[in-house]
Amino acid sequence: MQGVLLVDKPKGWTSFDVVNYVRRRVAAAEGKKPKNVRVGHTGTLDPLATGLLVLLVGKEYTRRATDLTKLDKSYDVTMKLGEVSSTGDEEGEKTSVSDTVPGEAAILEALQSFEGQIMQVPPVFSAMKINGQRAYQLARQGKAVELEARPVTIRKNTLTAYEYPFVRFTSDVSSGTYIRSLVEDLGKALGTGAYMSDLRRTQVGRFSLEDAHPVDSTGLRENLVQLPESEVE
Description:
233 residues; Alpha-Beta Plaits
């Protein structure tokens, strides 16, 4: 069984949970042990995030994972103003910052100010490696974590709804962009503080959430997408 599997990741599942689940299903379908089945993904989603997870099934596809992780991505984002979170999202400890209510014009200006190539510091609770250890592992141990800013590209931010304290927008970004960091930077720019309260990935390169299937969808083999041979050789 070979191909690309587009999954609509549910909230609460890690990307590794999805990979493991699909690996077991493929193994059962092929009469193999899970350890003998190749399944990978092309870019992780946080447990609290939902949406498009692009899985690669089979040796011919998993060996191209590195190339496919470099694809642009699109997200539906909800941020909550007035507070910050220790993890940058709903999971962390919240701290009030300001009760200022920005106008829609200020929201639009802030969103536009972060378009283009920007320097972004990844969140402390991220999978970035520091001396061989994940940043989130060090943070959970109470150790100081210092991550350097790096260039990312925000192709477009589009406001879709605003009812204080919640701002909803879509964001089209380059690979390697952290939406939690973007939201925190927007909160600083607005002077209100902000954290990401919801995230849904809608696009990865050419792959769309509209074509994705629930993780427990039947017809696993039928749901596999085949790429042109030139892209998997």
